[in-house]
Structure formats: C-alpha cells, structure tokens
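Hello,

Our lab assistant flagged a job as stuck in the queue for most of the afternoon. It eventually completed. Since we weren't sure the result was trustworthy after the delay, we are filing this so someone can double-check. Below is the sequence as submitted and the structure that was eventually returned. Let us know if re-running is recommended.
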Amino acid sequence: MKLASALLTLLAVVGFAGTAAVGAPSNITVAMHAQNGSGEDGTATLRQNGSDVEVVISIKNAPSTAQPAHIHDGTCSDLKGVADPLTNVTSGASTTVVKNVTIADLLKGPFAINVHESASNLGKYVSCGNITASSPM
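-- returned structure --
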C-alpha cells in the first residue's frame, strides 16, 4: 500500500511539473503584420512543450535570405530590448524552441515578435506581432 501511495504521489508531482500554468492556453497564434512596405504578413504559432515554447513563424512574401527574428520586450509600436532570440526567418519560415519559458510568462508581457530586414539592416523592421491571448488555438 505504501508503494502504491508513493507511486501516486510521484506521478502527481511529475504530471504537475510538466504542464503549463492553469488557465494559460497551450497554443496561441500571433498575427504578424507587414511593416515599412515589406508586404511580409503571416503568423507566429506558439506551442507549449513542457517547460519550453516552440515558436513557428510563417511569413508571406519574404525573401530567401536570412532575416533575424526575436521576441522583444514591449509592443510593436514600442519595441524594447530582445527578450529571446529566434532562429532567422529564411524563405518565410522559422522554428525555434525557447527554453525555460511558458506561454503564461509571455502573456504577462507585453512582448512582441519582430522580424528584421537583414543582419546588416537590423534597424528596418519588416514584420511584427504582439503576443496576446486573443487568438488561442
């Protein structure tokens, strides 16, 4: 009986540690809006995966060259510093696993996902989306 009780306690602890915060969505889609006449609209899908978040960016009309992307503190209208670097967007696609962060953490923001024109022109933004809970999947 003690073994069964200990096993149930262990399973409860492990199950609790592997889940997102109660009430927080496990997936959200961020609308990415073109900036500076780029025509680069799309989405960023955030999926909770244990203690990490997978960020999948899909942008239309993007060049084949690498475009740096980041999660920034702030909003698209008032970007602050980089909170988390993301894999460069190449041919409109990028997938990054951001370690030790939850969607619940990002929703406490404000945070935004921003794509830059190129590594040599980081000052020109081509697409941005605010991370909000308005679009749970």
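-- support follow-up --
The delay was a queue issue, not a problem with the job. The result is valid. Confidence is low (pLDDT under 50) at residues 1-21. The beta strands are 27-34, 42-49, 52-59, 67-75, 78-89, 93-98, 111-118, 121-130.
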